[in-house]
Every structure is written in C-alpha cells, then in structure tokens.
Q: What sequence folds into this?
C-alpha cells in the first residue's frame, strides 16, 4: 500500500478528566486524573459546563434536582468544566450541592466538542453515551429513571 495523503489530525488527541477535590483547608483544588474511573462506572450523569458562571440558572436548578434524585440510586453526577477552582467553590457554595456531585476540570475545546450547550447533560454507561441533552431539553426524573432502569436490567 502507498500513502497518498496523510489524514487530518483529530482536534482532540488527548482526553483527560482531572478531579477537583477539597484540600485540607476545604478549598477546591485540581487533583489527579480520573478519566479511567469515570469511563468505567456503570452509570454516570456527566454535566458539561464550559463556564459555571455563565451556565443557565434554570438548567442548573434542574441538574441539582436530578442529583438529588440519583443520590439514592448511588449514581454520581460529575460536573466537568473549564472553570477554575475558585469558580467551582463559588458554584458549590451557591447551589448547596448534594454529596454525590463531583467536579472535574477539562479542556474547553474538548467540552465544546462534547456538547455546545451550557450546561449539557450526558448519561454514560461504562463510557458509552446513552443519553445526551442540551440545557433546553433536560430529561425529567421519570424519563431518566426509565433509561437507568433499562441499563441496569441489561
């Protein structure tokens, strides 16, 4: 075989999810790579927010309600953002986030490639997207429950 023309390089050649965790003083700081952990979970609600400060308040209120719903089902909700640790701290304080909400930092271009909505929501099953919603059409609790029920049945 003969190479005629090399193909285009992908826009995203490295995909990393870095956790935001609280340090000894209780402040959020960027910590280790959790990419493999997130992509191996049976079910994860994956929220994409390019900027927490610019996210739709109405949609974020719905997402916090979904986090309250899935806490009983032992499902994590991960908010991936390109916002800095200070913005994560402010958002966390403002919304009184449930214990199952976790935060992560990702590259802004990667987040835009996943979904353009701020916020956007994905339902992941071992890294495979099983549902994807923009801030304008977030799923109801009953719709999410039905999808999760089907995933757990398989």
A:
């Amino acid at each position: 075989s003969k190479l005629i023309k090399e193909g285009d390089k992908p826009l995203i050649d490295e995909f990393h999810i870095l956790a935001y965790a609280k340090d000894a003083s209780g402040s959020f700081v960027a910590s280790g790579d959790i990419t493999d952990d997130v992509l191996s979970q049976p079910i994860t609600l994956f929220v994409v927010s390019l900027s927490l400060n610019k996210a739709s308040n109405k949609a974020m209120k719905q997402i916090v309600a979904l986090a309250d719903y899935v806490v009983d089902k032992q499902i994590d909700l991960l908010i991936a953002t390109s916002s800095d640790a200070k913005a994560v701290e402010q958002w966390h304080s403002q919304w009184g986030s449930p214990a199952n909400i976790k935060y992560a930092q990702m590259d802004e271009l990667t987040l835009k490639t996943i979904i353009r909505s701020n916020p956007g929501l994905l339902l992941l099953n071992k890294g495979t997207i099983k549902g994807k919603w923009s801030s304008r059409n977030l799923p109801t609790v009953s719709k999410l429950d039905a999808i999760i029920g089907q995933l757990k049945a398989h």
The helical segments are 35-40, 57-71, 85-95, 108-114, 141-153. The chain has five helices and seven strands. Residues 29 and 101 are 15 Å apart (CA to CA). The mean pLDDT is 88.
